[in-house]
Amino acid sequence: MQGRLPIHLLTREAFQIYQRHLKPDGFIAINITNGYLNLYPVVKRQAEALNMGFRHKFQSSDPDQHIRKNMFFILTNDRQYLQQYPSVNRKYFNEQGVIIREDDPNIADVPLWTDHFSSLTPIELKD
């Protein structure tokens, strides 16, 4: 696998530290873009464990703007932000520009990562 995944930054213990440093309406923003792993369910479990609201945003490639496709995840208790900015999934269009499907990045039953447990197997992207 190319690159290294900093698992210790995606554990329950790490997220508890992040949360302790947040203001009541603060944000934890995480770039979960990865060509090999779907990190969405890992971070979603952390948001649920912290009882925080969350949203994610898939950004399509835009070579003219020098943007590569990416995915960001936001954890916050700012309800106004969560209502104003809904999650954005990856959409697929047909030749006429009509949406034919939308990805749901969640994977059921991915356990909460901790300093003592993490597994890449359930989140590996398939070809």
Question: What can you see in these coordinates?
Answer:
The protein is an alpha+beta fold. The protein has one domain. The protein contains three helices and five strands. It has a three-stranded antiparallel sheet. Strands 4-5 form a two-stranded antiparallel ribbon. Helix 1 crosses helix 2. It is globular, with a radius of gyration of 16 Å.
What is this entry, summarized?
This protein is α+β, with helices and mostly antiparallel strands and 127 residues long.
Secondary structure tally, helices: 3
Low-confidence stretches: none
Hey, roughly how much beta strand do the residues contain? 15-25%
> Kindly, what is the distance between the CA atoms of the first and last residues, rounded to a whole number of angstroms?
14 Å
Give the rounded overall mean pLDDT: 89
Look at the helices and sheets and give the structural class.
alpha+beta
Sequence of secondary-structure elements: HEHEEHEE
Largest sheet: 3 strands, antiparallel
Name the overall outline: globular
Strand order of the largest sheet: 1-3-2
Total separate domains: 1
Q: Oligomeric form of this entry? A: single chain
Question: What are its keywords?
Answer:
single chain, 127 residues, three-stranded antiparallel β-sheet, two-stranded antiparallel sheet, 3 helices, 20% helix, 20% strand
Describe the protein's topology.
Layout: H1 12-20, E1 27-31, H2 40-50, E2 53-59, E3 70-76, H3 79-84, E4 91-93, E5 99-102
Antiparallel strand pairs: 1-3, 2-3, 4-5
Helix pairs in contact: 1-2
